[in-house]
Every structure is written in structure tokens, then in C-alpha cells.
Design goal:
Number of strands: 15
Largest sheet: 5 strands, mixed
Number of helices: 12
Shape: elongated
Distance between the termini: 107 Å
Structural class: alpha+beta
Strand content: 15-25%
Radius of gyration: 35 Å
């Protein structure tokens, strides 16, 4: 650009020429006009869908709406980008929004879109605008599920609540047996210690994601089109499980326990998990990692504990050659819950033609199957390998009656004469 020199007088002073003033004034006016022009594409303030989740059947059509706030002053096109076109089809696949000479920034306009289910499965739909950037559609999306049968969907929903109830109730048979026997002999303390650690970690994960807005924001930034994986029933189950386990641990301090205690191996494992929790919590407090990563660490600890927590009890039953003191009712309810959980996964995989999630989610499927295997093993221990032992009652020799009786819980009692002991009951754990 040419530089304009100011005019110089003979006495050495200078002045700005009229040409220079005119040039600067012109540039100022042009800049102000440019800055004052309205948006090139008008004033569409917002666009959103009336629903972000849609469930339909194969060969079924369902209407949903895109809502537009404001009008553009040029014609725009909104195109639907379908993740899996073989699963769902949309009519129309492109919305034409005409421009207007006098845009209204507050008008509300709805556009009807028809979704047609072609085959079962899950798909996501996003939206693009032409010209690019004419309207912000980054937060507009649709999750759609096409299924074979609504009946299967209802059955799956009912199964979810049944196994939720079975798992929730499964803690109480052990509490009842401890109370009735006034003893926790036969219940492995390593199992209890691992259980309370696992459910505490599970509670931290669920409560953090369900109640903390900051952690929910972290999750949404990583998974912008995903729903929160933690629901209210997850929070209730984890907190209730922790409470029930604490009740059982309290019974260990109140009732007979002989020399039972948490083993050194169990303490070492728990110490390792606790160290991980402390370190990751410190990193979260120091801003080195996000709190969501801390919660993920807690969930991984829970998964590890689920894999190993039954081993101490199974080994203890093997050493004692008895399952007395270990509730088989707990195992039956856990088996029912685990079986229905896997059955629900199978029904959903068929209904949505999503077998990849069934076998691909190795964690959920593997843990469910692993728990079932242990439940079956405990049932075999109780009813086949170490059939429940007889309980002998030492009584005074003067008592008459049959030398064998039975209790309400199905166990047999044998009467043994003793002339030197007061009336007292002993559990000799004799093999039947």
C-alpha cells in the first residue's frame, strides 16, 4: 500500500492533506458498514428434535419432528446422515428451508420426518447443513432402535426387575442363618471383606455418575451422544448391597466365630486395591486425572473382586468338607439373578440383531457366566460333595424318646446320652 506523506510548509511544520483525510474517512465508513451487516444466513437461533431416542418395530413407521427457531434469509438444506442405512430409512432424507426477505428470529417451525424400520439393530443419526456452518447442528442427533418384537422387549424389561429383586434379596438368607445359629462359623471372612470393598467401589461409581453434575459433564464430553449408564436402581442396589454386607460383618463381631479372621492373603489383596484407590484419588484431587477416570478405576476394582471373591469360600468348604454356615439360599437367588441377566442379554441380542454386543461385551458376559459357574459349584458342594452334616445334641440320660428327630430346616439331629454334661447342643459337623 502506498504511504501518503503529509504536506510540509517552508517553516518545517506539516499538515494532513485533504486527500489523506478523505481516504481514512472512507475506510472507516466501509468498516462500520461491514460490521453492521446481519448474518449472511439469517437468524436461525436453534434447531432440535422433539425426541432423541426412538424405538420402532421392523416394517413400522414412526413420525418425529425437527423444531426450528427463527428464519434464514437464504435457502438452507438440512441433510440426515444415517449411521446404518440398512436398518432405518427416513422420509424426507433432506429438509429444504426456504429463505425469507424479512426473517423472524422468534418464529417456531416444525418439520415432520418419518422413520421406517428396515431391519433390527441400533443406529445413530446426525444432521448437516448446506451452506456449511449456516446453522449449528452439533448437538442435534437421534438414537434409533429397530426391534423384532415389542413383546420380547416387555419380557426383557420384566426380567430386568426380577433379577434386580433376586440379587437384592440374596443377602438376607445368610443374615437369617447367622441370626438363627447365633454363629458365623462356616462363613469365610475373606469373602465378606472382598464383598464390602467391591460394593463400596460400585457405590462410588454409581453415586458419582448419578449425582455429580461435574462428572456427568466429563462423561458427556467423552460420549456426547450416550445416555448416562447409571440409573436410580443401580444406585439403590449398590448402596443396599453395601448395607446388607455391613450387617453381616456386624454379626461376625456379635456371634460365635471361633478363630476365623481375614487371612493375610486377603489383607494383601485389599491393601493393594486400597493403595490404587488412594493414588487415583490423589491424582484426581491434584488435577492430574479427571474424576471420571477415578470412578472408572473403582469400577475395575469391583470387576476384579467379582472374579475372585467366591474362591475363599469355596476353598473353605473344601477344607471343612462341609457347607454348614454358608447359606445355600443366597446361592440360589444369585443363580436366578445371573441366569436371568444372561437370558435378558440373549433376548436383546436377538430382538435387536446385536450379537456383537452379546459376545463382544466380554466383561459383562464373562462375569455373569463366571458367577453362574461358581453358583453351580456351590450347589454341588452342598448337595453332592459335602452333604449337610448331622448335628448331635448331648442330653441327659434320663430323657426318653426317639434317638433321632428333625428340624424345620430339614436337618437331622441325633440324640446322644451323656451322664457327665449339662444339656448342651454341639455342632460336630459330622459327615452324613
Amino acid at each position: 500500500m502506498a504511504h501518503i506523506r503529509p504536506a510540509t510548509f517552508p517553516n518545517g511544520t506539516s499538515r494532513v492533506s485533504s486527500h489523506s483525510l478523505s481516504y481514512c474517512f472512507t475506510r472507516f465508513i466501509v468498516s462500520m458498514l461491514l460490521l453492521g451487516l446481519p448474518n449472511t444466513y439469517g437468524q436461525i437461533e436453534e434447531m432440535y428434535l422433539d425426541s432423541t431416542d426412538l424405538n420402532i418395530l421392523v416394517d413400522e413407521s414412526r413420525l418425529f419432528r425437527m423444531v426450528q427457531i427463527g428464519e434464514p434469509n437464504v435457502t438452507l438444506q438440512i441433510a440426515l446422515q444415517v449411521q446404518h442405512p440398512d436398518i432405518v430409512q427416513f422420509v424426507p432424507s433432506t429438509l429444504d428451508i426456504p429463505g425469507t426477505a424479512e426473517p423472524n428470529d422468534t418464529v417456531k417451525i416444525t418439520h415432520d420426518i418419518m422413520a421406517y424400520g428396515k431391519s433390527p439393530g441400533h443406529s445413530e443419526v446426525t444432521f448437516n447443513s448446506t451452506p456449511v456452518g449456516s446453522v449449528n447442528l452439533s448437538s442435534v442427533f437421534l438414537r434409533i432402535t429397530v426391534m423384532h418384537s415389542n413383546t420380547i422387549n416387555v419380557i426383557s424389561y420384566i426380567m430386568g426387575w426380577i433379577y434386580f429383586a433376586a440379587w437384592s434379596v440374596s443377602f438376607y438368607p445368610q443374615i437369617y442363618i447367622n441370626f438363627k445359629r447365633k454363629s458365623v462359623v462356616g462363613l469365610n471372612f475373606d469373602f465378606l471383606a472382598l464383598n464390602i470393598m467391591g460394593f463400596t467401589m460400585y457405590s462410588l461409581f454409581n453415586c458419582g455418575l448419578y449425582f455429580s453434575k461435574a462428572i456427568q459433564s466429563e462423561y458427556q464430553s467423552r460420549h456426547p451422544r450416550s445416555v448416562n449408564p447409571v440409573q436410580l436402581n443401580d444406585v439403590f442396589f449398590s448402596l443396599h448391597a453395601s448395607f446388607a454386607t455391613l450387617v453381616t460383618i456386624t454379626q461376625c463381631f456379635l456371634y460365635e466365630r471361633e478363630e476365623q479372621r481375614v487371612s493375610m492373603t486377603g489383607r494383601s489383596i485389599l491393601g493393594g486395591f486400597l493403595a490404587i484407590v488412594i493414588v487415583t484419588a490423589g491424582l484426581g484431587a491434584g488435577g492430574k486425572i479427571e474424576w471420571l477416570d477415578f470412578l472408572y478405576g473403582c469400577s475395575y476394582i469391583k470387576l476384579c473382586i467379582t472374579l475372585i471373591k467366591y474362591v475363599p469360600q469355596a476353598y473353605m468348604n473344601y477344607k471343612r468338607k462341609s457347607t454348614i454356615g454358608w447359606s445355600i439360599g443366597n446361592i440360589f437367588l444369585d443363580f436366578v439373578g445371573g441366569f436371568l441377566s444372561i437370558l435378558q442379554m440373549a433376548l436383546n441380542a436377538y430382538n435387536y440383531n446385536d450379537w456383537i454386543s452379546f459376545f463382544g461385551d466380554a466383561t459383562k458376559f464373562g462375569l455373569g457366566l463366571f458367577s453362574l459357574v461358581f453358583d453351580i459349584f456351590f450347589i454341588l458342594q452342598h448337595y453332592v460333595f459335602y452333604r449337610e452334616g448331622r448335628e448331635f445334641m448331648i442330653v441327659d440320660s434320663s430323657e426318653e424318646g426317639s434317638n433321632m428327630t428333625s428340624s424345620g430346616d430339614g436337618r437331622k439331629y441325633f440324640m446322644v446320652n451323656n451322664w457327665h454334661a449339662d444339656e448342651k447342643k454341639y455342632d460336630l459337623n459330622a459327615k452324613a
